[in-house]
Amino acid sequence: MNLSSLSWDQEMLDSFGVPKAMLPDIRSSSEVYARIKEPALKDVPVAGILGDQQAALVGQTCFRPGEAKNTYGTGCFLLMNTGDRLVHSKYGLLTTTAYKLGEQPVQYALEGSIAVTGALVQWLRDNLGLIQKSSDIEPLAHSVGDNGGVYFVPAFSGLYAPYWKDNARGVIAGLTRYANKGHIARAVLEATAFQTRDVLEAMEKDSTIKLDALRTDGGMVEDDLLMQFQADILNLPVVRPVTRDATTALGSAYAAGLAVKYFKDLDDLRANWAVDHIWKPNLAESKREEMYCLWKRAVTKSFDWVIQENC
Questions:
Q1: How far apart are CA 243 and CA 230, in angstroms?
Q2: Of 110, 177, 228, 265, which has the highest C-beta tally within 10 A?
């Protein structure tokens, strides 16, 4: 699909040899497409179509340019609304349509995907056996006062946004005899926050919009230590909504509800969104930048690990 015209791109169709007639109609994210024939749900309208992360953006009611959400799951998926402005990324992000609600103008977004976040906690549990269950990582990380100079770059299958290095591999940097499993656990959690800052900084450069807060959802947002450090390293408030485990389903329901007039407008949806907790930054600027500088140095150590030439 051509992002500007919102129609199938003839040049791309010709390149791939795809006849336009075999493709479905492109429709908005919120309208009645059909009605169910199955007796149990007979005549119920099908009225919302959104991609996974776009649906989460709608579920978080990020309807204004510059509003952003991060979904913390096996990986992290950060989207920023850029309004009706189509921003072509120069800093390693993807440009995507966010949503189009009925006849209203299409809204665009910048998207950054991080491959390994919650999966790193699972790796610590299953591959190293340092914890029995995923929720054990927070108390283990709390057993130490800081990361002890340890940084974990989880480039298990390369690095995604904003680096796009498929030949990178995971590294643990800064180890000394002082380091213990608590420091490694803390470095695992901090890796998620550092990677999020990498993507967020790219978004701010591309969009020329400075964020005032980051909305969060997904399984990892139950970890208070991670959320506080996320606020600290971003120097931004981090917001956890009341509904945080089914944000994608909620966004799809919002789109369908607008189409059938269950919801009146976007203000109706905003009124339905509620805050559970806000973490505010509480880290000295000098310490924040020192830690981020060391993270960036650790990231460079993961580059070009897989090479074709003999060592």
A1: 19
A2: 110
